[in-house]
Amino acid sequence: MPETPPGTVREIRLAEVPAGLPGPEHLAVVEVPPPVPVAGEVLVRNRWFQVFPALRTLMAGGVPGAPFPPLRPGDTLFGPAVGEVVTAGEGVRLRPGDLVSHFQGWREYAVVPASEPLAGSLPDPAAHLAPGATAYAALTRIAGLRPGETVFVSGGAGGVGSLAGQIARLLGAARVIGSTGSAAKAERMTAELGYDAVVLRDGGPIGARLAEAAPEGVDVVVDNVGGEQLRAAVDAARPGARIVLVGTLATQLSAASTGATAPVELDTFQLILRNITLRGLTGVDAATAAEWTERFGAWLRSGSISFPHTRISGLDRAPLALRGLFDGRHVGTVVVEP
């Protein structure tokens, strides 16, 4: 029997723009009437949604040309989510109980355009929130990783990084190096996440430590951090190295930064002389995403890969989950079950 939504539902809104890192004091849990779908739409009850660091940038006013709009006080937060269809408008083939992916997280119920239901390609539906498609596209479509190469992943314990190390290993990398700011995370990275070595960010010289971990240099870089770590990656890059720019955690996770800019100074002589390429990745096309989902499902079922994540129950705990993400408390993806 189709579910009847309650008279009021909860969502999380930005209460005020934070001066530094966002915390629960900057967010508000509010009750609103449940949304009503019209033709071509469905009402879904969110089962899981992802907490992602780019929210810091959006709260700071966003970046011109970015794919997501800025968040203003009073706006409901958003992000990747998996929802269960409750009711559908006219002309929709989806049925109650179907699962769909969408971008209206941070709320208990959402109205979203009708789409195809999620196939059973992944053994755990929450794994559709894994940002592995980004890592997969970076390694296969942009960097063109070849068997036997050395890979460096900055921010190797984060949502993208915790999968990038495993994917690089499965694609034939000879050596995979990551970075993190936590000794406990470093231990997990080498024990569980495909890394041969970890560069620990604890105030020491990142460049020297990366050179020690990769004495012959690196061929492919998946950069989730920027800043000093990107400079170190360029210094360690071999001739013909490919650097894929995925994230800017150095500024997004810094209380001293606005989170809306990510300046870094690089020696362009070295880029030229060693024929190093840098390319940004802002999205994944549908064909690559479908290929990733198929391979991810097969790897999960065979035990070749894991989905590192933390599940947090309760919508009211989502603001704390966001602050925990900025404080570096978690390994992998942070998922909230409303």
UniProtKB/TrEMBL annotation:
InterPro entries: ADH-like_C, ADH_N_2, ER, GroES-like_sf, NAD(P)-bd_dom_sf, Zn-ADH-like_protein. This is NADP-dependent oxidoreductase. It holds the Pfam family ADH_zinc_N. SMART domains: PKS_ER. Gene3D superfamilies: Medium-chain alcohol dehydrogenases, catalytic domain (3.90.180.10), NAD(P)-binding Rossmann-like Domain (3.40.50.720). Residues 23-336 form the Enoyl reductase (ER) domain. It comes from Microbispora cellulosiformans. It comes from the Bacteria. One of its GO terms (molecular function) is oxidoreductase activity.
